[in-house]
Write a sequence for this structure.
């Protein structure tokens, strides 16, 4: 057998510093019976997006972005290289049938949870429509669920005009009985991004809404601390749903529905850190990144940092 000096057949030729562990090196594919701290699943569905979107490609680009970062936190002076991560892969979606795709996403998230392999989970979308089957699966497995939705939009559009889309997940959850209105917290809702009808709908459903004006006045971390402590008294489980268009377009240009006046990247990361510290926060989805609209993977790299803030506690 030939021993190659510089060739690495079947493997990328990547520089390796012996002192650096990249986040991607901590990730292993799921095998039956495996156990880990974190589970990751990709829900690459975006055909129901109201805006033309290739958000189905985001799970791949977010995973790739993890190659750029190390497991060491200088702020906490701790290396998280021993945090174990299992990747359950991506769901095979139906090419044309949107209801079948939704059912496949629900079944796949539920199957992941039924392995009891991990303590916490990260779901990579896809557009925000994937949150409906994902949250439904968590609710059925774990009981009463509280959701903190990071979003510029309410995502409670009517279903008559277009069926289930990325604009309807929380209406579907509320009206399906999977989520109580008082257990849904919306953070970062922006002016001129929603209809009056939907603003009134969430208020009538007892959804707790924090606009960007509230964020400016109160600060994102105090809001989160207040609402998580309130939710924790009532729910069995807390789920973070992070629509990346909650972030200002300057920091997240790869979203289909970009706009000015959103959170900074630092505000988002500080908020995720504050939320993830609570023991009842067990899952997070990241949605609405269209890699074809991104610039130098800025938005996917921010999503990778959101993952690390969630994983490394």
């Amino acid at each position: 057998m030939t021993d190659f000096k510089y060739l690495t057949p079947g493997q990328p030729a990547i520089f390796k510093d012996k002192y650096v562990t990249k986040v991607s090196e901590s990730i292993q594919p799921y095998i039956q019976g495996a156990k880990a701290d974190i589970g990751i699943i990709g829900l690459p569905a975006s055909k129901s997006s109201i805006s033309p979107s290739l958000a189905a490609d985001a799970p791949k680009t977010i995973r790739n972005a993890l190659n750029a970062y190390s497991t060491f936190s200088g702020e906490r002076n701790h290396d998280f290289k021993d945090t174990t991560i299992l990747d359950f892969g991506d769901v095979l979606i139906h090419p044309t049938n949107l209801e079948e795709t939704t059912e496949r996403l629900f079944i796949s998230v539920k199957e992941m949870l039924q392995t009891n392999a991990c303590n916490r989970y990260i779901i990579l979308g896809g557009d925000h429509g994937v949150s409906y089957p994902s949250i439904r699966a968590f609710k059925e497995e774990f009981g009463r669920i509280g959701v903190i939705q990071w979003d510029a939009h309410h995502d409670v559009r009517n279903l008559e005009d277009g069926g289930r889309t990325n604009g309807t997940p929380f209406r579907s959850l509320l009206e399906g009985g999977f989520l109580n209105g008082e257990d849904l917290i919306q953070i970062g809702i922006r002016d001129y991004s929603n209809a009056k009808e939907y603003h009134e709908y969430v208020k009538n459903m007892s959804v707790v809404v924090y606009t960007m004006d509230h964020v400016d006045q109160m600060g994102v971390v105090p809001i989160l601390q207040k609402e998580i402590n309130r939710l924790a008294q009532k729910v069995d489980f807390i789920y973070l749903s992070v629509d990346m268009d909650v972030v200002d377009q300057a920091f997240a240009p790869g979203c289909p529905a970009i706009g000015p006046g959103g959170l900074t990247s630092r505000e988002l990361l500080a908020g995720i850190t504050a939320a993830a510290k609570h023991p009842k926060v067990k899952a997070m989805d990241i949605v609405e990144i269209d890699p074809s609209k991104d610039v130098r993977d800025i938005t996917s790299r921010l999503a990778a940092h959101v993952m690390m803030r969630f994983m490394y506690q």
Observations:
- Residues 23-311 form a domain with the Arginase; Chain A fold (CATH 3.40.800.10).
- The chain has one domain: 23-311.
- The chain has a mean pLDDT of 96.
